[in-house]
Amino acid sequence: MQDTPIIQAQNLYYDIASHDNHIRILQGLNLTINTGEQVAIIGSSGSGKSTLLSLLAGLDVPTSGQILVEMKPFSSLDEDGRAMVRARNMSFVFQSFQLLPALTAIENVMLPLQLTQQADAQEKSLQALNQVGLSHRILHYPKQLSGGEQQRVAIARAFATKPRILFADEPTGNLDNTTGKIIVELLFKMNADSNTTLVLVTHDMQLAGRCKRQLQLNDGVLTDIV
After folding, report:
1. What does the alpha-carbon distance between residue 50 and residue 38 come to, in Å, rounded to a whole number?
2. What pairing do the DSSP bridges indicate for beta strands 5-18 and 221-224?
3. DSSP secondary structure string for all residues of 80-102
């Protein structure tokens, strides 16, 4: 079966202004990610990994160049247009969990389902929380959960919407080694079960090695790690 691109970055540049200077973060970057791929993007701190992730997810827009999702213009859409594509196709797992403190675990998982007006939001959320082993913690608030449990809720929230693309930004960065390993196993198991395209940003080579493809970001350019 022929590979089908789901994300493409074409001649991507990203600059930020600093006093009177412009700092170039990405320069002429090209990237194609096919449906169902697992891709890790690694690089040193400050190399622009998270910036690239934000661009690919449409949370920010490039200085020049373009990003396509399912071979359709994405980065050139306005903010509302990009948000609609994200809601239909994408989910996120962040280093800092990004749970809303005023909502319980199940309410956090239900939120993206409710925002996209999906039927059976509660049932789907219960199922997702059960998959991550937290069916007994659904009414707990984030402050009542450990870091590992909070990340499990975040993973449940990410997969409950059945996304086509999952973006993960240093998903074990705030966890101890033992908890981090458990979260990694869970993340990759659920990703395999869902056949989701995974784009993972990390500085951890061992974590990157779990992906089928590894890319190194240096001086704003991506290179394949052989």
Report:
1. 17
2. unpaired
3. HHHHHHHHHHEEEEETT----TT
Give the tens place of pLDDT for each residue, 19-66.
778 888 999 999 999 999 999 999 888 788 989 999 999 999 999 999
User: Tell me, what amino acid is at 121?
Assistant: A
Structure token digits, residue 163: 């996304």
Dihedral sign for Cα 11, 17, 18, 21, please.
positive
41 Cα distance to chain centroid: 12
167-208: pLDDT as tens digits: 999 998 888 889 999 999 999 998 888 889 999 999 888 899
- Burial label for 187, CB within 10 Å (0-12, 13-18, 19+), is buried
Closest CA to 132 of 114, 111, 106, 113: 106
Residue 91, beta-bridge partner list: 166
pTM of the model as a whole: 0.91
Does the CA dihedral 156-163-62-28 come out positive or negative?
A: positive
Given CA atoms 209, 225, 50, 199 in this order, what sign does their dihedral have? Answer: negative
Written as six digits, the tokens of 61 are 């827009």
Residue with tokens 């449940």: 156
Please report, rounded to a whole number, the percentage of residues in the chain having pLDDT higher than 70: 99
pLDDT in tens, 22-31: 888 999 999 9
Find the DSSP H helices in 70-222: 79-89, 105-115, 121-131, 147-160, 177-194, 205-208
First-residue to last-residue Cα distance in the chain? 24
